[in-house]
Structure formats: structure tokens, C-alpha cells
Specification:
The protein is mostly beta strands and about 130 residues long. The protein has one domain: Hypothetical protein, similar to alpha- acetolactate decarboxylase, domain 2 (60s Ribosomal Protein L30, Chain: A, 2-Layer Sandwich), CATH 3.30.1330.80. Helices cover about 10% and strands about 60% of the residues. β4 and β5 form a beta hairpin. The radius of gyration is 15 Å and the shape is globular. InterPro entries: PPC_dom. This is DUF296 domain-containing protein.
């Protein structure tokens, strides 16, 4: 396991930026150790919901956790909106960094993550494989 600290800049798509950073680093599996920052108009899919709900305006990223693969990720976040109301859920594409996002990834160099559709859940779920020895 190696750590990869990141600072995402304003306008970056949180999920896409993490996937791109992992791919650029030559890794294909990581977990988020910590994540804080601020977002704008953040789509979160709440528990049991079919569609994402956009948390409109500025929000603080209080926590971020999940798995990241070079081509897909599964992230959950806790956000506080401008009134202090706290929201939590599945991070969708389109969560834009407002001022900054500071993320620490733990890269798992011997592993690769991918996502395949699981008919039991109706979602693309994590597939874990050990990388072949070089």
C-alpha cells in the first residue's frame, strides 16, 4: 500500500478526477483514506433512491470514503449545505469542486478493481482481482 495525496482544483469533477489521478499514477485500485473540501451543486444518490438529488449551491465536503478504480469508483460523502443541513449518500459524476478538495488515496499496487453489473443488486458492483505477477 502506498499513499497518494491529492489536491483537486476548482471546477474538477470529484469522481472523474480521482479516477484520472489513479490511472495517471499507473494504479488500478485504491481506497479513500480521507477527503475534505468544498463542492458546488453536488449530485448525491440517497439511500434507496433511483436518481441523484442535487445539493444546490455551495457545500462543505465533511467526509469522503470508498473505492476507486482507474475506470470506475464507488464513493460516499457527507456534505453540509450553506444552512448547515447535513446530507449523505453516493457521490455521482458532476460533483464539482468549489474551492478545493484534499484527498488521501491508499493505492493497492497488487490489486485491480473493476465494476460489473450484478443482477442481484441492479448495480455495477466491485470486482477484486490480484494483479498477475510481472
Amino acid at each position: 500500500m502506498n499513499l497518494l495525496p491529492l489536491r483537486l482544483l476548482p471546477g474538477a469533477d470529484l469522481r472523474r478526477a480521482l479516477e484520472a489521478a489513479l490511472a495517471a499514477d499507473g494504479a488500478s485500485a485504491a481506497f479513500v483514506v480521507a477527503g475534505i473540501g468544498s463542492l458546488a451543486d453536488a449530485p448525491l444518490r440517497l439511500a434507496g433512491a433511483g436518481e441523484a438529488r442535487v445539493i444546490a449551491g455551495a457545500s462543505e465536503l465533511l467526509t469522503l470514503s470508498g473505492s476507486v478504480g482507474a475506470d470506475a469508483s464507488h464513493l460516499h460523502a457527507t456534505l453540509a449545505d450553506a444552512t448547515g443541513r447535513v446530507w449523505g449518500g453516493h457521490v455521482g459524476y458532476g460533483c464539482r469542486v468549489r474551492t478545493t478538495a484534499e484527498i488521501l488515496l491508499a493505492r493497492l499496487s497488487e490489486w485491480q478493481f473493476s465494476r460489473t453489473f450484478d443482477p442481484r443488486t441492479g448495480f455495477a458492483e466491485l470486482e477484486i482481482a490480484r494483479k498477475p505477477l510481472a
